[in-house]
Specification:
The chain is mainly alpha-helical. It has one domain. It starts with 6 loop residues before the first helix and ends with a helix.
Amino acid sequence: MSKSWSKKELKIYLFLLCADADAVKTEEELEFIKHKTDSDTFQTLYREFESDDQESRFRKIENSIAKHNFSQMELADLRKEIQQLFLSDKKYSAAEKYLDKILDNLIY
C-alpha cells in the first residue's frame, strides 16, 4: 500500500473484498459500494483491489484497521454494513459466511 487509507477508503476496500467473497461481484453489491463513496475513490480502490492477491488484500485491511482507532460504535456500524452488503443480492453464500467469520477476527 503506497499510502495510508482513510477510514472511508478502508471501508470501500473491505466492501470490495466482501463483494468478491464468492468470486462473483453482483451488480447489487457493486451499487451498494458505489453509494458509499464518490466515483473517483471507487475506481481507484477497485483498480487496487483487482491488482492485489488474496494475501495482500487481507494484510492491507489488517494493517489499516490497526492504524485507525475505531470506536466500538464504528465497528458495530461497519459489521452492520457488511451484513447489508452480503444480503444486497438476496444470497448469503457459504463463502460469504466464511469470510464473515474471518473478518470478525480481523476487525475485533
